[in-house]
Amino acid sequence: MFKTLNETLEAYQRRDPAARSKLEILLLYQGVHAVLYHRVAHWLYCKNWRFLARWVSQWSRFWTGIEIHPGATIGRRLVIDHGMGIVIGETAEVGDDCLIYHGVTLGGTGKDQGKRHPTIGNNVLISCGAKVLGPFKVGDNSRIAANAVVLSEVPDDATAVGIPAQIVRIAGRTTHFADEVDQTSVENPTLEKLAALAERVEQLEQQLAKQNK
Ligand SMILES: CC(C)(COP(=O)(O)OP(=O)(O)OC[C@H]1O[C@@H](n2cnc3c(N)ncnc32)[C@H](O)[C@@H]1OP(=O)(O)O)[C@@H](O)C(=O)NCCC(=O)NCCS
């Protein structure tokens, strides 16, 4: 348990340039407190002590502004920066080494039953204000932009941006393939065909002229 806590504090030091000593992070960062409370709430939830589990999670929400349902599965070294206004739903799963900012919702759309919330891969960044809604996967190493609303699967190494979110980068490369087309130097295709036909007719006329000599 201490090892897990220590690696989480180290993750805060790595990811938050403003973070200083581990003691300061442990005492003052509500993201750390919310995850610690969640570990207790999740343990109670798994033992089927649902009321107590919910009580711990509501207590945590009151103190931290971060609401993690006791049923949610949270991986190791999660960093919640700034906290406040974060909601993580019952069937949400968050992988290892993720970074979540304030105002993030990992929620449902209201259209699904059973598994209703997203599965977040490892090393995923979910920027401030982003909403990830539905029971789909967000791939490893992906980035969700600030204020994006993600409604469908995100592949590994992708950047999702906008409302509804579009994949604009995969492994740092743009997915706006249309933007890569050279539109300024493209000739008129009809004129190109006519020119090719005219050339062909000329060749045939020259061949005929030779034969008739
Ligand atoms: C998405 C983000 C993580 C950058 O990821 P990236 O993979 O490096 O993506 P890029 O910066 O190359 O941006 C890709 C494209 O998305 C656009 N974009 C980036 N963030 C955007 C956003 N939040 N909303 C809309 N468009 C956005 C960029 O302008 C760029 O557009 P282009 O393809 O037309 O050039 C970053 O822009 C972001 O949103 N960070 C927020 C982090 C945060 O929450 N900070 C709070 C600290 S308190």
From TrEMBL:
| EC number(s) given by UniProt | 2.3.1.30
Q: Which UniProt keywords apply?
A: Acyltransferase, Amino-acid biosynthesis, Cysteine biosynthesis, Cytoplasm, Repeat, Transferase
Gene3D superfamilies documented for this protein: Hexapeptide repeat proteins, serine acetyltransferase, domain 1
Task: State whether keyword RNA-binding applies.
Answer: no
Provide the reaction this enzyme catalyses. L-serine + acetyl-CoA = O-acetyl-L-serine + CoA
Q: In which pathway does it act?
A: Amino-acid biosynthesis; L-cysteine biosynthesis; L-cysteine from L-serine: step 1/2
Q: Name one GO cellular component term.
A: cytoplasm
Query: Can you tell which superkingdom this protein's organism belongs to?
Result: Bacteria
- Indicate the principal place this protein occupies in or around the cell: cytoplasm
Q: Which GO terms describe its molecular function?
A: serine O-acetyltransferase activity
Do you know which Pfam families this protein is assigned to?
Answer: Hexapep (PF00132)
Signal peptide per UniProt: none
Compartment(s) where it occurs, according to its Swiss-Prot or TrEMBL record: Cytoplasm
User: Any keyword Cytoplasm?
Assistant: yes
Quote the PANTHER family the UniProt record gives: SERINE ACETYLTRANSFERASE (PTHR42811)
Q: Which family does it belong to?
A: Belongs to the transferase hexapeptide repeat family.
Q: Which protein are we looking at?
A: Serine acetyltransferase
Query: Species name for this entry?
Result: Flintibacter faecis
